[in-house]
Amino acid sequence: MESVSAVGRASAVPVSAPTVDALVAALFRQEAGRLVSLARFFTDDRTAAEDLVQEAFLRLARSGHRVRDQAKAAAYLRSIVINLARDHNRRGLVSLRHRPPAVLDEPSAETQAAERESRNEVVRALRELPTRQRECLALRYYLELPVEEIADTLGVSANSVKTHLKRGLKSLAADLEGTQ
Predict the structure, then answer these.
(1) Class of domain 109-179
(2) Average pLDDT over residues 25-50
(3) What is each CA distance from 69 to 5, 8, 115, in whole angstroms?
(4) Does the global pTM surpass 0.85?
(5) Measured between alpha carbons, how far is 13 from 24 in angstroms, rounded to an integer?
């Protein structure tokens, strides 16, 4: 009995080259970041993870003509990344035992830009809140003050602080969900 893989049956009609290119490009836009994170989980090395993901996309581009179900292409790509990570770890198993622990690396420029954009959205949304809610949220989540200290700082009751926090978080969540 023939097994069916993520790329489909051998007797199916091949996908054209422009379709493969479009599929690979779309998958890169949608999945590259998550695949690097996945590979990083297995390799504990960002550079190696990026290399593995790049290799996975190259392999998909070379064998993309065999893809029969484009809905399963992302799963196929994930399996390529996992297999490449396994191979990477097998090859490096001996050296892994003798090297120092990996140093945490700096986030990529893309990650930094996304985090900065996210922070800017939060700051913008905070600035649109009523003054008391904004003050309570900043004191609680930026300075990490307990409710009692916030109440003392603002000269209001603890229950008032809790109310402002609850309303502020609700407004903030509604605003941020609307921008995504």
Answers:
(1) mainly alpha
(2) 86
(3) 10, 7, 34
(4) no
(5) 18
